[in-house]
Amino acid sequence: MPRKQAKPTAGAEPADGPIQFLSPDGLLEPDSRLELPPAVDLLALYRDMALVRRLDTEAIALQRQGELGLWPSLRGQEAAQVGAAYALAEQDMVFPTYREHGVAWCRGLDPVSLLGLFRGSTLGGWNPYERRFGLYTLVIGAQTLHAVGYGMGLVRDDVVGSGDDTRDTAVLVFLGDGALSEGETNEAFLWAAAQNLPVVFFCQNNQWAISAPYSVQSRVPVAQRAAGFGFPGVSVDGNDVLACLAATREALTRARSGGGPTLIEAVTYRINAHTTADDATRYRPSAETDEWAAKDPLERLRLHLTASGGVGDTGGVGEEYFADIERREQELAEHLRAGCRALPVPDHASSFENTYADMPAELKRQLAEHSEFLASGFLAAGQEIGATR
Amino acid sequence: MPRKQAKPTAGAEPADGPIQFLSPDGLLEPDSRLELPPAVDLLALYRDMALVRRLDTEAIALQRQGELGLWPSLRGQEAAQVGAAYALAEQDMVFPTYREHGVAWCRGLDPVSLLGLFRGSTLGGWNPYERRFGLYTLVIGAQTLHAVGYGMGLVRDDVVGSGDDTRDTAVLVFLGDGALSEGETNEAFLWAAAQNLPVVFFCQNNQWAISAPYSVQSRVPVAQRAAGFGFPGVSVDGNDVLACLAATREALTRARSGGGPTLIEAVTYRINAHTTADDATRYRPSAETDEWAAKDPLERLRLHLTASGGVGDTGGVGEEYFADIERREQELAEHLRAGCRALPVPDHASSFENTYADMPAELKRQLAEHSEFLASGFLAAGQEIGATR
Amino acid sequence: MSISMVKALNNGLRKALADDPKVLLMGEDIGRLGGVFRVTDGLQKEFGSLRVIDTPLGEAGIVGSAIGLALRGYRPVCEIQFDGFVYPAVNQIISQLAKLRHRSGGVITLPVVIRIPFGGGIGSIEHHSESPEVYFAHTAGLKVVTCSNPQDAYDMIRQAVDDDDPVIFLEPKRHYWTKGEVTDETSTPTPFDRARVLRAGTDATLIAYGPMVPAALEAADAAAEEGRSVEVIDLRSLSPLDLDTVRESVHRTGRALVAHEASLSHGFGAELAARIQQEEFHFLEAPVLRITGYDTPYPPSRLESDWLPGVDRILDALDHSLSY
Amino acid sequence: MSISMVKALNNGLRKALADDPKVLLMGEDIGRLGGVFRVTDGLQKEFGSLRVIDTPLGEAGIVGSAIGLALRGYRPVCEIQFDGFVYPAVNQIISQLAKLRHRSGGVITLPVVIRIPFGGGIGSIEHHSESPEVYFAHTAGLKVVTCSNPQDAYDMIRQAVDDDDPVIFLEPKRHYWTKGEVTDETSTPTPFDRARVLRAGTDATLIAYGPMVPAALEAADAAAEEGRSVEVIDLRSLSPLDLDTVRESVHRTGRALVAHEASLSHGFGAELAARIQQEEFHFLEAPVLRITGYDTPYPPSRLESDWLPGVDRILDALDHSLSY
Ligand SMILES: Cc1ncc(C[n+]2csc(CCOP(=O)(O)OP(=O)(O)O)c2C)c(N)n1
Ligand SMILES: Cc1ncc(C[n+]2csc(CCOP(=O)(O)OP(=O)(O)O)c2C)c(N)n1
Ligand SMILES: [Mg+2]
Ligand SMILES: [Mg+2]
């Protein structure tokens, strides 16, 4: 498959509003505020977005089948996540919320590992050090401070602004529009600013925090928040994978080189309900969802790729490319289904383990008592233990 | 005593930096960014600043004599506090930190009531509803959210933007530069902004949070923080009582009329140590303190008042004015000394009372047990009870 | 009328809003959505968005501004979406809400209710199944109550709103959908700070609250079949503690067991055991036993029915108690 | 060498910083000023401002960023300026710090120490005399320790820094200036999770920790003059609890008393009482008694010596215990 590079077609540029390269019709246009990234593999980008969407769709299906307790869908946010992830260097560290399945995918995590938390078979699911992708954080905003501390560690490790590209490191931390309202998030902003830390805050403003529209949180755009703390804020079309990639790349490069933090607002939309447990029809009109569906991040890139002359000089992309993606999607779906069902139900002892580095005597006693109880005659009647609903 | 009004003398205006009307040399100059308040009783302002300084000096003396456990001095911040307080309408509500003795004074509190908290004879000291002056808040930032809630109440009481000056009400909440870093303060900012609440945040940037210079908290000026949340921020010379008054008056007027919150930064200086328990020589050079002493807020107004032609058309203020202030200061000092020593040592039962609206049975039992213990033979040896240091 | 606990709470809140214009509800997603558990369903529509307030996403802000509202004469009822999200509000709860009456010598009254769906057993992910009651019960100045059935839910939420002290109102989320008869307001409900004997017995006293009450009753039923007479007490109020009711019972039975979901160490049972052993020292025939969650974080949901104390562990403990 | 507890902590932290470049100190005013109690005096000068960090004024930020630093391989020691200011950090402590090892199946190790000067008796204003130990001891995943003398302060702070679990390190501020012999590092200190019998006795066991230990010893002295032999245990570790040492003692003496400053209800003594009455049921000659602060906010300083439990109340309780 040829490595396709983005090259802008001529056209008017938007005067303000979020930075956008790729319009909903698939037209690629420059934007004076940001350089179009020079080396981008559009075909890979599209493929990953498509696979991530499939991952999401499959997880929803698994939830419906009762295999997962819950699933927070990323549908509509593929461009934001894949674009941001493509800007990462291997050594960069990522702190996600609970919705960054697309980033996890691009980081190379086995997608099955994302399911355990929602299946209730684990509280974690992967080794955060292996792919430099932190555990999902459900407490809104909490991870922003972990990112700050990690960034403080990078400074102390002397891997910021050394000039060595393979060493210099940044932190990319994700947050939602709702998370902007937590005190902890704002503390993270000010620590990062005051200490000029290599932390990029990537806020997916998907317009909703469960049922709260963005207007409940703020009357000014997300990116403006950063100025108040003294660091740059930038707003990009979150459904334009190129804009997301370009802005994140610029911010991460600055962060690695010692230029400090950036807040990126990716203006996007949560197409599905908050999670599979939510009913979005109670609080938002379907017209809004329809409007955003027309700005679909995958569709615009597909249009661009298939338009004659749309990608570089090679003309439109052919059917075999899409067929290949479809094949990979099928494989992925099967992998997820099989992997999900095969996720081990943890041993009862695992509830006790790793509470401390070494299990304290009292906890050992509790575990022994519990094991004995489970092994005792009571186990026979043990169907009803616990969940007396 | 004649009611003296501020009238600007001609002169250059500062291009940027904090808004200033009254220079350290006592020259009154206009500032294009803010209108000089039309009706200001400069003599009253100066007198209150002088009395407030004396209050502070006396409290420090009382602490040295062992009558108070601690005292947070306001020295250097008299203009900020008195200026802000003069902008209040009677119906406005004030939420202070622990250093707003000057505001308390202007609100008409008996200054003796300020001493109880620091003498350890009470945890409060006054009725916050009487003079619409909240209790001192020692937990940094906590009061900012109370101000927000109170402002929400005002909106619901329909006393915001009704157009009736005697009814429309605002909240003035004080905070320090250090308080800008607490998550709760930032939540207060965003709630006030998103709901357009009638809350004026008055930040005395006295350059220090105990030993932390402002640069530890932020790399941009205080007032800039507000823009990030979408409301106006303004910076004034905190040692210029007229600038403080004018900016607060403008902000409170806007708030009362439904125009939403404002953040005011009063750039000033904490001349003394953080409290009487602190040793500022450990962390800041005396040269800095000297520099700020030259910008003394009282001195500049005194210079202005005594300069021939300095106040309106009536010429310099005469000796009898200052003699009168001195008399009042003496009275105040005696009142404080006598009042402090006369503050009642609370009854042991008071520790138990008012924990709940009605004392629960268990607490009654504890109180009875405690009273019995105190009345028992053990009381004889009771000198050592408690503080085994 | 047989309704769910959710509906009972909804009715109670509606009544509170209708009775007193100073009552406000505030929290994340409580308006349009009606709360993630629908406890406030329809109330914003009925009372408007100034009285049923969709707040920004910040728990410190919710409780801190509720304090300010109370200072202005309002009676705010805050919803914390899940037990595990109350911690950002702990500073305002412990340092401000609990203390301002005392600090002000009784001048300040803060009739703030903080509703928290709590406990496990519904298959949730982490932070959604916590039992934080002791953090609040240990804090002087707060009242802490919990209901175990729709009638209590209806009565107690109204009593909490009427109360002049700050009340932490814990709702056992796994019983949200349990239905029960709820009679209307003509009845005179038990004061919400009193425990209630749900089942009389003579061999042992089983004390529970909120989520564990149905299991306690079930255990007593099972024990009865084996000829053991277990008295079951629903504490209802965790602070203040209705020790009289507990003592009267244990004094008779000589045996006490306490069940709760929270971790054993420093869980609610510790205080009960400490009280009972002190007050009924000469009358206890067995030590006070505790049937509780373990000293670990709440487990992933596939393990929760294993981890949570249930009927069988209660019966096991009962055997143990009776063996003394 | 006889030094104060402040100096002992200072020496311990200096040693920890010198021994391991990954050790960092962070907190408000800990650098130039050396902390409001001077525990970190001189350390920033010696180790630089990248290792001894003056942080912004935000406790959530301090603990949250300490977690991030630990994720990057550092061993941060946070100072919370006073007990009453730890609450803004409680969300990070309870939901993140305590749980991440468990959540990650043991992959994540967070060797974070949170130092908190705690307790009353120094004439401070409110929020400066709190005893929040139970909030942490009830939270699985945290270790909670406290020292009562300079030698322990020196040893235990180093053990806390070396420990791979998060440690809440409570410093009894009213004994900060108490001097005591401190031997250097050649000694082999008692593991910091073990209690220590400070004084042997046969008639009753008096259990204390941190601020109350000197009063407990004094009370035992006074009792000895009246011919009563009181064994005094300094718990040192509040979580995990060294129950073995407690049981062994109470088993012999048959009587237990617990003293602490925190409020009675759900205070630390509750758990001790619950354990002891269960484990030593047949050996107790009197109920476990608690000598504690009352169920009120901490009083203004003019009342604190009245409110705080002291030698006389301990002796009173001892009489009571022996009267059974
Ligand atoms: C501290 C905290 N409070 C409340 C919640 C409940 N909650 C879960 S997701 C959510 C909305 C988050 O919105 P946003 O930050 O915009 O992220 P999105 O879900 O849109 O990706 C809320 C309120 C939580 N997880 N944590
Ligand atoms: C939540 C909290 N953390 C820490 C403290 C300890 N403390 C008391 S005053 C202070 C500095 C406050 O500085 P600033 O806000 O600038 O007010 P200033 O004292 O200068 O008036 C600190 C850290 C506190 N009172 N509350
Ligand atoms: Mg969102
Ligand atoms: Mg300051």
Q: Any idea what the CATH architecture of the largest domain in chain C is?
A: 3-Layer(aba) Sandwich
Uncertain segments of chain A of ≥5 residues (pLDDT<50)? 1-5, 8-14, 379-389
Give me the oligomer status.
Answer: heterotetramer
- Continuous helix count of chain A: 13
Relevant CATH superfamily of the largest domain in chain A: Thiamin diphosphate (ThDP)-binding fold, Pyr/PP domains
Proportion of residues in helical segments of chain C: 25-40%
**Major protein interface:** A-C, 54 and 56 residues
Secondary structure: helix percent of chain A: 25-40%
**Proportion of residues in β-strands of chain A:** 5-15%
- Assign the structural class of chain A, choosing from mainly alpha, mainly beta, alpha/beta, alpha+beta, or little secondary structure: alpha/beta
Radius of gyration of chain C from the CA trace?
A: 19 Å
Give the CATH level 1 class of the largest domain in chain A.
Alpha Beta
For the largest beta-sheet of chain A, the strand count, sense and barrel status come to: 5 strands, parallel
Number of strands of chain C: 14
State which percent range the strand residues of chain C make up.
Answer: 15-25%
InterPro entries (chains C, D): THDP-binding, Transketo_C/PFOR_II, Transketolase-like_Pyr-bd, Transketolase_C
Keywords (chains C, D): Oxidoreductase, Thiamine pyrophosphate
Protein name (chains C, D): Alpha-ketoacid dehydrogenase subunit beta
Organism (chains C, D): Streptomyces phaeochromogenes
Model description:
The complex is a heterotetramer, with 2 copies of chain A (389 residues) and 2 copies of chain C (324 residues). Chain A has 389 residues and is of the alpha/beta class. Chain A folds into 2 domains: 42-342, Thiamin diphosphate (ThDP)-binding fold, Pyr/PP domains (Rossmann fold), CATH 3.40.50.970; 347-389, no CATH class. Chain A is built from 13 helices and 7 strands. In chain A, helix 6 links the parallel strand 2 (171-176) and strand 3 (199-205). In chain A, helix 2 runs parallel beside helix 9 (241-256). Mean pLDDT of chain A is 92; it is low at 1-5, 8-14 and 379-389. With 324 residues, chain C is of the alpha/beta class. Chain C has 2 domains: 2-181, Rossmann fold (3-Layer(aba) Sandwich), CATH 3.40.50.970; 196-322, Rossmann fold, CATH 3.40.50.920. Chain C contains 12 helices and 14 strands. Chain C has helices spanning 5-19, 43-47, 59-71, 90-97, 100-103, 133-137, 150-162, 213-225, 243-253, 268-279, 304-307, 311-322; strands at residues 2-4, 23-27, 52-54, 75-79, 113-118, 143-146, 167-172, 179-181, 196-199, 204-208, 230-234, 237-239, 256-263, 289-293. Chain C has a 7-stranded mixed beta sheet, with helices on both faces. In chain C, strands 9-11-10-13-14 form a 5-stranded mixed beta sheet, sandwiched between helices. In chain C, helix 1 (5-19) runs parallel beside helix 7 and helix 8 packs across helix 12. The model of chain C has no long low-confidence stretch (mean pLDDT 97). Chains in contact: A-B, A-C, A-D, B-C, B-D, C-D. Chains A and C meet through helix 4 and helix 13 of A and helix 8, helix 11 and helix 12 of C. The complex binds thiamine diphosphate (TPP) (2 copies) and magnesium ion (2 copies). One magnesium ion is lined by residues 176-178, 206, 208-209 of chain A. Chains C, D: It comes from Streptomyces phaeochromogenes. Chains C, D: Its cofactor is thiamine diphosphate. Chains C, D: This is Alpha-ketoacid dehydrogenase subunit beta.
